[in-house]
Amino acid sequence: MCAAALDVAIIGAGPYGLSAGAHLRTLGLETRVFGPPMEVWRRHMPRGMLLKSDGFASNLSDPQSEFTLKNYCAQNKIPYDDTRIPVPVEVFIKYALAFQKEMVPELDERRVENVERVNGHFRLQIGERDSVTARRVVVAVGISHYASMPTVLSGLPPGRASHSADHHVGTAFKGKKVVVLGGGASATNTAILMHEAGADVLLIARSNSLEFHTGPGDQPRSLWQKLRNPSSGLGPGWKSRFYTDLPDVFHRFPASHRVRIVDRHLGPASGWPMRDRFLGKISMLLGREVVAAQEAGAGVRLTLATRDGRTEEHETEHVIAATGYQPDLARLPFLDASLRDSIATVNHAPELSVNFESTLPGVYFTGLSAANSFGPMMRFAYGADFTARRLARHLRRR
Length: 398
Ligand SMILES: Cc1cc2nc3c(=O)[nH]c(=O)nc-3n(C[C@H](O)[C@H](O)[C@H](O)COP(=O)(O)OP(=O)(O)OC[C@H]3O[C@@H](n4cnc5c(N)ncnc54)[C@H](O)[C@@H]3O)c2cc1C
Prior knowledge:
The two termini are 27 Å apart. 26% of the residues lie in helices and 22% in strands. It folds into two domains: 5-146 and 325-395, FAD/NAD(P)-binding domain, CATH 3.50.50; 151-212 and 269-321, FAD/NAD(P)-binding domain (3-Layer(bba) Sandwich). The mean pLDDT is 93. Helix 1 runs parallel beside helix 13. The chain has 13 helices and 16 strands. Strand 1 (5-11), helix 1 and strand 2 form a beta-alpha-beta unit. It is globular and about 60 Å long. It has helices at 15-25, 39-43, 69-75, 89-103, 185-196, 223-228, 238-245, 247-252, 255-264, 275-278, 337-341, 371-374, 384-395, and strands spanning 5-11, 31-34, 112-118, 121-126, 130-139, 161-163, 177-181, 200-205, 283-286, 288-296, 299-306, 311-316, 318-321, 345-346, 349-350, 363-365. The strands form four sheets. Strands 1, 2, 3, 4, 5 and 16 form a six-stranded mixed beta sheet that branches. Strands 6-13-7-8-9 form a five-stranded parallel beta sheet, covered by helices on one side. It has a three-stranded antiparallel beta sheet with strand order 10-11-12, with no helix packed on it. The longest helix has 15 residues, at 89-103. It binds flavin-adenine dinucleotide. The site of flavin-adenine dinucleotide has 36 residues, from helix 1, helix 2 and helix 5. Residues 11-17, 34-36, 38-41, 45, 51-53, 58, 111-112, 140-144, 185-186, 189, 334, 366-367, 379-382 line the site of flavin-adenine dinucleotide.
């Protein structure tokens, strides 16, 4: 049993948790970050993936903005360009782990199993036996508890259906027939992972076409191109520029408007770096929705509805739902029910103040959980800088 009372406990050591930790520890606040570092990126994203975000938009945040991906690549002689060289996921992970060692050296890699309120403080159970108390808690668990599985697959046993988050490597599927469901970046990345591992892959999506972001093209861009589509951390365009530069204005929009924008902005388009590894190599059935799924022999029979009202059947050995992530407070297993009940939500995600504080004073949320409050930037590492600086400004005064 550890008796020390922390000023701030940060749950999660992904880009947001590590960035918040790097800022808060310089303020003289007793801060500790908990969790295995970069776990989602190391274990739940396709190996070999190239990041959708540009190099300049793939930083963790420290107070002096010194430990950037650009500086890390320069020091380690890794090819880098702000927009023209895609960032391999392995480079991003190594960079983030180096950031952690330098900026958040006191990381506790154990998981937080439970958080409850005791005498006006929060008690966190760490691992199986230890606990700490903290005056404030920052929940920085990113996408890790929010994988969204279509209900139509819920009757299938685990060996026949899974979520894209379950697959970091594709070797177990070599020589097998696999269906990947979805039309976004997760779906194309997972289909490529499986195809390159030797699986016979078919991608099935509701949309009639798959979209890929356009590449950086010829650089430098003309003044006209810059005016029409200004650069932003979410890719070029005025809307993206608005969402990255003015998250406080976004925060003032009515809740229903915010939720709609977060659902729709950027749509499901995949990153341009993966386009050539997908198109012409992987089979697709577009304009189809899976309306039923049943075990059939050693595999699965899918019933598909077409846009013109017909149904088709398709058999496969395994279905992977690359159907994204939906924030939902009820799915955070470590939050004691009494805490959860005190937190108001917007479309299942916590409602947050301009300082990322929930309606339960002292409990803060970042990343995907904060997207309905601060906009689409929170779905990407790019939002970590704004978040960490805002948390630091707010918490230093308390
Ligand atoms: C296929 C795919 C591709 C993507 N590509 C990009 C991209 O190119 N660029 C980009 O910016 N974003 C990309 N994203 C989005 C990416 O997930 C977020 O940008 C990023 O992970 C946000 O960081 P985070 O710190 O909020 O969360 P995460 O990276 O999800 O980290 C959360 C951490 O919380 C930890 N955790 C969870 N529960 C506990 C607990 N109880 N105790 C302790 N720790 C806990 C986990 O171990 C995890 O390490 C992609 C997502 C997917 C699925």
